[in-house]
C-alpha cells in the first residue's frame, strides 16, 4: 500500500514487488531455460467441421520451470519478446513442430485421405521483423522434408494492422512458396476488412469471443449476422475460416451451419502431447 503524502516515504507494495521479482527472475532465466531444454510443446487438433476429421494441430509452447512448474505462454512470451529471446525460441518451436508433423505424416502412411496432417505455428511480430525468418523456415522445411503446404504460420491481426510493405514482404515470400498464413485472433483488432485483400493471408482464425457468443442455441441474431458476414466475406476472398475456443457441441453445430471450415477447442481436445494427436488422427482416419 502506498503511504499518503509524498514520494519520499512511499512504502513498497509487497505483492507488486513479488510480481516484479518473478517477472525479472523469469526474464533473466529465459536464455538458460532454452539451453537446458525446459520448453516443450503441446499440440491441439484442428478439426474439419464438415466431417469431423482431424486435419492438423496448432503448436502451443510451455515452460517447465524448475521452481514454478508449467508456465503458460502468456506468462513468458511477452518477456521473451521484450528481450529478443523470442527469435531463437520461436525458431526452436518452429523446428520442433515441423519435425513432429513429419513424424505424424510418416506414421500415418497411406491413411491420409484428406492430405498430410498440417502444423500451425504462432509467429510473434518480432520474428516477422527478423531478417532470418524466410531462410530459417526454408531450411527447416528442407531438413525435415515437410512440404510447405503442410505448414501454416499464425500471425495476430494486431501485428499486421498498419504493417508496411517491409513487414509483409517475408510473409508474401513464404506464401508464394506455399506456406499458409493465418490471421490469428481475427475480429479483435479493428482492422479494415477491405485491408484483407492487401495481406498475404489464406486463413482467418476467428477469435474465441465469437465462439463464446454462440453459447445459446439459437445464438443472438446480431452475433449470427456478424459471423455470417465475416464467413461470406472470407470465402469470397478465398480465405478459409477456422474458429477457436469451441467448448460445446452446440457451438460447433452453429459454426458449422454458418459455414466455418475448421474448428479448435476443448470440445474436441485440450492441447496435449504429440502422441495424443497421433491417436486422435489415426482413429479418425481408420474410422
Ligand atoms: P492463441 O494462438 O490464440 O492460442 C489459443 C489459446 O486458446 C491457447 O492458449 C489454447 O490452449 C487456448 N484454448 C484452446 N481451446 C480452448 C477452449 O476451448 N477454450 C478456452 N478457453 N481456451 C482454449 P495457450 O496455450 O495458453 O496460449 C496462449 C497464447 O500464447 C496463444 O494464443 C499464442 O498467442 C501464444 N503462444 C503460444 N505458443 C506460442 C509460440 O510458440 N510462439 C508465440 N509467439 N506465441 C505463442
Ligand atoms: Ca494461434
Ligand atoms: Ca498453401
Ligand atoms: Ca487465437
Automatic annotation (TrEMBL):
<feature type="domain" description="EAL">
    <location>
        <begin position="23"/>
        <end position="285"/>
    </location>
</feature>
<protein>
    <submittedName>
        <fullName>EAL domain-containing protein</fullName>
    </submittedName>
</protein>
Amino acid at each position: 500500500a502506498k503511504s499518503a503524502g509524498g514520494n519520499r516515504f512511499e512504502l513498497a507494495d509487497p505483492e507488486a514487488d513479488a510480481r516484479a521479482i518473478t517477472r525479472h527472475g523469469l526474464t533473466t532465466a529465459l536464455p538458460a531455460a532454452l539451453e537446458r531444454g525446459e520448453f516443450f510443446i503441446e499440440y491441439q487438433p484442428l478439426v474439419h467441421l464438415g466431417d469431423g476429421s482431424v486435419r492438423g494441430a496448432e503448436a502451443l509452447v510451455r515452460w517447465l520451470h524448475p521452481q514454478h512448474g508449467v508456465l503458460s505462454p502468456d506468462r513468458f512470451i511477452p518477456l521473451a519478446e521484450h528481450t529478443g529471446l523470442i527469435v531463437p525460441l520461436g525458431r526452436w518451436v518452429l523446428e520442433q513442430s515441423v519435425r513432429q508433423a513429419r513424424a505424424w505424416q510418416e506414421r500415418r502412411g497411406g491413411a491420409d485421405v484428406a492430405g498430410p496432417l498440417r502444423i500451425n505455428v504462432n509467429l510473434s511480430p518480432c520474428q516477422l521483423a527478423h531478417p532470418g525468418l524466410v531462410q530459417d523456415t526454408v531450411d527447416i522445411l528442407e531438413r525435415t522434408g515437410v512440404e510447405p503446404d503442410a505448414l501454416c504460420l499464425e500471425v495476430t491481426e494486431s501485428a499486421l494492422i498498419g504493417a508496411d510493405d517491409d513487414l509483409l514482404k517475408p510473409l508474401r515470400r513464404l506464401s508464394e512458396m506455399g506456406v499458409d498464413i493465418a490471421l490469428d485472433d481475427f475480429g479483435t483488432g479493428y482492422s479494415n476488412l477491405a485491408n484483407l485483400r492487401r495481406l498475404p493471408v489464406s486463413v482467418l482464425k476467428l477469435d474465441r469471443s465469437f465462439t463464446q457468443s454462440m453459447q445459446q442455441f439459437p445464438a443472438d441474431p446480431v452475433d449470427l449476422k456478424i459471423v455470417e458476414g465475416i464467413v461470406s466475406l472470407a470465402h469470397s476472398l478465398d480465405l478459409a475460416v477456422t474458429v477457436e475456443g469451441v467448448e460445446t457441441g452446440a457451438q460447433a453445430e452453429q459454426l458449422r451451419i454458418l459455414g466455418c471450415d475448421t474448428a479448435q477447442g476443448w470440445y474436441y481436445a485440450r492441447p496435449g502431447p504429440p502422441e495424443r494427436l497421433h491417436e486422435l488422427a489415426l482413429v479418425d482416419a481408420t474410422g
